[in-house]
Task: inverse folding
């Protein structure tokens, strides 16, 4: 297997093998115009493994790799990624009451790392992200998380709405953090299977995602500030969940 560095795999057979066997898969770059059985195979494997696929010109691949890339390059992630369809049934089989956090378009690496750190400390079972529109989970994110991203499963799904719908179909109440909600966090029974949804600082939770959530809630505040930072809000939710679930 030829590699430019530890973060890249290239060539048709090496990439196919990695897509079948490895979990630390970030993104596949495939040469524009690729057709036939190989293109169908790569699209199917990327879809099954939840790996983003981007069609790019030859110049892009040439810049990424010094050598015969055969029209395909795979970038590796610093952490492994999982699928909800694998993680969630396992939690139920182990007798756990699932507690998850869905991160909807959070682009700040420090917020992502801080959320992961609080999640792992408070017993959250997994984080859920989409294939696009989030901060890269590289070394800086791992450092900010104090290593939590290496211990906490991260499930990568095609889209946030897809993930939320799967959770709903699996009997999990999906709760959106929203400042204008009538119910407070303390009023919600968190002893049931729960997934919290948190949006980016600027944009918040997408309308499409919020519309299909089970309910929304707010975190009470006394000061005159606009709102809690998303990583702080997430930490409060995780801690409240842990306290409600502690005998």
Result:
């Amino acid at each position: 297997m030829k590699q430019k560095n530890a973060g890249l795999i290239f060539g048709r057979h090496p990439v196919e093998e990695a897509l079948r066997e490895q979990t630390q898969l970030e993104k596949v770059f495939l040469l524009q115009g690729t057709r036939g059985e190989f293109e169908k195979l790569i699209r199917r494997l990327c879809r099954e493994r939840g790996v983003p696929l981007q069609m790019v010109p030859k110049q892009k691949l040439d810049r990424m790799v010094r050598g015969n890339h055969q029209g395909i390059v795979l970038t590796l992630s610093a952490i492994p990624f999982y699928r909800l369809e694998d993680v969630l049934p396992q939690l139920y089989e182990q007798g756990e009451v699932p507690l998850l956090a869905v991160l909807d378009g959070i682009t700040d690496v420090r917020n992502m790392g801080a959320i992961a750190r609080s999640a792992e400390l408070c017993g959250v079972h997994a984080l859920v992200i989409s294939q696009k529109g989030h901060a890269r989970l590289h070394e800086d994110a791992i450092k900010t998380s104090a290593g939590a991203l290496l211990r906490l499963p991260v499930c990568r799904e095609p889209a946030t709405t897809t993930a939320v719908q799967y959770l709903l179909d699996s009997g999990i109440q999906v709760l959106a953090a929203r400042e204008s909600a009538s119910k407070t966090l303390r009023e919600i029974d968190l002893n049931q299977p729960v997934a919290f949804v948190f949006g980016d600082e600027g944009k918040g939770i997408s309308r499409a995602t919020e519309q299909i959530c089970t309910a929304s809630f707010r975190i009470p505040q006394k000061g005159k500030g606009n709102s809690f930072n998303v990583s702080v809000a997430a930490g409060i939710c995780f801690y409240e969940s842990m306290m409600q679930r502690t005998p």
